Amino acid sequence: MIKDAYIRNPKPAREPVQAARELMLIGGRRAPAASGKYFDTLDPSTERVIAQVAEGDAADIDAAVASAREAFEGDWSRMRPADRFGREHGDAAIENFTEPKAVWINTGAS
């Protein structure tokens, strides 16, 4: 039969995971999932594992929401963007930071 003449490319076998384990970022700190579980992230072109990512669950969501609420209710939400940027990247970075500005472009249309 004709279909028997086609050579099928088998999916590459999954190689043993040698990729880095990626942690979650909650409250400014890197941490594994509360469950300790990870899931594989694959390169879609080769189906090889390129990373293992912490598999968050309800406990991790609760921790992230609590951290976000604490930041929002604190000084963070009242800070200017430049000040937040400096706090995250160091005060020296502020020298090159510019506040967003509104720009009006005349397109010639009335």
Task: Please tag this protein with its features.
single chain, 110 residues, alpha+beta, 3-stranded mixed β-sheet, two-stranded antiparallel sheet, 17% strand, extended
Give a quick rundown of the structure.
The chain has helices spanning 2-5, 58-73, 81-89; strands at residues 21-22, 24-26, 29-31, 38-42, 49-54. With 110 residues, it is of the alpha+beta class.
Describe the structure.
The chain is of the alpha+beta class and 110 residues long. It has one domain. It is built from three helices and five strands, in the order H-E-E-E-E-E-H-H. The strands form two sheets. The protein has a three-stranded mixed sheet, with no helix packed on it. The protein has a two-stranded antiparallel ribbon with strand order 2-3. Strand 4 and strand 5 form a beta hairpin. The longest helix has 16 residues. The radius of gyration is 24 Å and the shape is extended. The N and C termini lie far apart (69 Å).
